[in-house]
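Course assignment 3, question 2. Fill in each field.
Student: A.L.
Task: Predict the tertiary structure for the chain below.
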Amino acid sequence: MAEPDLATVLVEAFRPFVLGRLAERNLGDLEGMAAALDEGERWLTETLDELLAQPFERQTRGPLEVFQEAMIFPTRVLQTHGLPPAPRDVVATRALPGDLYDLAPASSRELGEQAWTAHLAWGVAKAAALRQR
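Answer field:
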C-alpha cells in the first residue's frame, strides 16, 4: 500500500492537532470553531496542492509554513470570543508573529509520525532535486 502524500497527511492532521492544542489550553468547544476548521482544511488542501504541484525550485515556502499559516482560521474564532493572546517568548513571537494563541507547530514532528516522515521525505527530495540543478 502506498504512503499518502504530504498534502493529504497534513490536511488530515490539521483538525486533530488544533483540537488538541485547544484542549491543552482548556479552550473547549467554542462556537464557530467547527466551521473555522472546515474552512482551514479547505484552504490547506488548496494551498498545499498548489504549492506541491510546483517544481521544487518554484516552491517559495515549505509545507510546514503553510500549515502554520492555516492557524489563522482558529485564531479568528478565538479573537471573536475575546480571548487574550497566549504568552509567548520573543523567539516564537518573531518566528510566527500571527500565531497569537500559540497554536502553530514548531515542527512537523508535532503532527505525528506519518506527517513528520512525509515532511522529511519531501525535504530530502527537494534537496536532491535542487542539488542536481
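Instructor remarks: The radius of gyration is 16 Å. The chain has one domain: 6-132.
Grade: pending
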